[in-house]
Write a structure and sequence with these properties.
The chain is mostly helical. It contains 5 helices and no strands. It has one domain.
Amino acid sequence: MNTYNEDKITIISGHYRKILTTINGDFKYTDVLKDFENIAKYKISINLPYVLMINDIHGLKNILISNVTKKNINSNIINLLSFFNDVGNKVASVYLEEYIGSLLSMNNVRINSLADIGEKKNIIYYEAHLLWLINLQIL
């Protein structure tokens, strides 16, 4: 199945253009983190895997490091690496939050469907396992 879509590509490239434009000028750290959070949420909405999102971030980081070294502003490399570490953590947090939410939703559906046949021992153990997963998510 081909999932290529011009509109999705246009939206994604628009997000990255905005980030690059922001980074090339004076910018607030929190604003750029918010931009990466927004692109992560969009990529989740189109079911783009976390691995591909992180790959994009690493590619962008490598391009920016290359540009910084060409301009002999080597003192900024450490700051850039630290910044992209924070970006990676933010994106991971967004993806994890979405995954936990969908897992919780699926578990609730499963638990509700088990209510009708709860008299069997195996089903009771399975229900306890699902409840444990929910409690784990709350922690």
